[in-house]
UniProtKB/TrEMBL annotation:
It comes from Candidatus Neomicrothrix parvicella RN1. This is M23ase beta-sheet core domain-containing protein. Keywords: Signal. SUPFAM superfamilies: Duplicated hybrid motif. The keyword Signal applies. GO terms for molecular function: metalloendopeptidase activity. Residues 76-169 form the M23ase beta-sheet core domain. Transmembrane segments: none annotated. Residues 1-36 form the signal peptide. It holds the Pfam family Peptidase_M23.
Amino acid sequence: MIMNLSPRFPDLSSRVRSVAAGLVVAVALGAAGCVAAPHSAVTTTNAVNGFDRFPVVGPVRYQNDYGFSRGGGSRRHQGVDVMATRGQKVVAIESGTITTRVYSSSCGHSLGISGDDGGYYLYCHMNNYAAGVAKGGRVWAGRPVGNVGSSGNAAYAYPHLHVEVHPGGATGAARNPYERLRDAERRTGVITRPPTGWR
């Protein structure tokens, strides 16, 4: 369908009318394309939406600190830190297999989960692991895997859980998990107020 915009907008130059007409056609075709796709064809994926569960149970505080300077400017923060009270329960945000369960000087008590969705989810600075959490074991979204702490290079920091996400698997690049955390928070009703002792 070609629309003649001249009678409606006689003061527009022919060039502006051509651009406007092109936009109207593009919008009309785009809308038709959207209508043609049935709603059932749309699938929900974690690439856009939140995690199956928020990683910390109880009151938390966090901000989008992905990419912030760390180590005196020598590196960039590859995750989001979820501040909480020491000992608060940490749960798996996705179902999968535990592929990493180690203590390191930087990450402290860490846990890596290779998700059934193909992503890799890394937790750092936990106080301890939950009973039965072992390398090679399976976890489901929401299963307790440990408790919030400040282990590793966070020994003098406020207790928190470092949440790092690699959508392409353990060897893939890290991606900012902030929006996915926010979505999980909205869906699961996590309390986001300062924990006891927060300054």
